[in-house]
Amino acid sequence: MSSNNVLTCEIIAQETPYVTRNCSKCKRITEFNCSEKFRVNANQKMVDIWLIYNCIHCEGTWNYPILSRVHVNKINSILHEKFMNNDQETSWYYAFQINQLRKLCKDVNTDIRYELRKEYLGSMTNETTIRLCCKYDFGLRIDKLIAEIFDISRTKVNKLAQDGMLLLHPKINMKNKITDDIQITVKGDWYSIDTLT
Ligand SMILES: [Zn+2]
Question: Could you tell me the distance, in angstroms and rounded to a whole number, from the CA of residue 94 to the centre of ligand 1?
Fold first, then answer.
């Protein structure tokens, strides 16, 4: 049976990841959150840009280096404006550069709050395609999300995958992290449409 049923599932991050590192004021390893504010320094024509993180316990800050000693002419003028205006989307873009942050910090806590926005188009048949989209990658696992969508255990998710009831496109493992544009084909009648809407 061809699939006319599509569930679009948008994963919307509600906060940016925390970083763990030493606070020179607290004099201990602690967590910092992103202030969503940039610090821009211009020395002659050379520009430095940092994203400011705040210690969650004190007034201590950590500056995450974004650009170091870059000639002002080499910075895209629209991007430069965004740094100057503390554009929130731009700050989130850098705050989700988790691999880069991991190199600079002791740890990055990606266990953040998120919302699922589900939109179901279709009728009762026995095949549904789930389209996942997420603007920010924070290492959420596919099996964890599927369990949440259908309100079932992760063990059940893996059992269904083994039984060919859940197929991933591209063909990756259920334990992989979610990236934008993963599709899941759901077969069988083991779930109720009500859980999808
Ligand atoms: Zn502190």
Answer: 22
